[in-house]
Design a protein that fits this description.
about 100 residues, 3 helices, four-stranded antiparallel sheet, globular, alpha+beta, Alpha-Beta Plaits, 4 strands
C-alpha cells in the first residue's frame, strides 16, 4: 500500500501563536502516526511561487494522511492558527 503525505507551504507572521498551533496539531499527528520528514530548515525557491516554510509529513497510507488533515483534532489546531500566518496544504498518495 502506498504511503500518504501531507505537504504544507506556509508563511508565519505571529510565531508565538503559530507555536500554539504546532503544539495542538501534534495531537492529530500522533493519533494518525504522522512522521515529519521535512519541517522548516533551509529552502530556496528556484522556480514558480513558494512560501518560506515547507513541511512534509509521511503517513502509512493516504487514508491516514487524509484522516489527519480532516480530523476534529486538527480542526482545533487550525482554529488556534487563525491570524498567525498563511498555510497551503495538500494530501497526496505516494508511489
Amino acid at each position: 500500500m502506498p504511503k500518504g503525505y501531507v505537504i504544507v507551504r506556509a508563511e508565519v507572521t505571529n510565531p508565538e501563536q503559530w507555536a500554539e498551533y504546532v503544539a495542538k496539531s501534534k495531537i492529530a499527528l500522533d493519533k494518525f502516526g504522522g512522521k515529519p520528514i521535512v519541517r522548516g530548515g533551509q529552502a530556496k525557491i528556484v522556480e514558480g511561487e513558494g512560501l518560506p516554510r515547507n513541511v512534509v509529513i509521511e503517513f502509512d497510507s493516504y487514508d491516514k494522511a487524509l484522516g489527519y488533515a480532516t480530523s476534529p483534532e486538527y480542526a482545533e489546531a487550525r482554529k488556534a492558527r487563525q491570524g498567525a500566518g498563511t498555510l497551503h496544504m495538500v494530501v497526496v498518495e505516494g508511489v
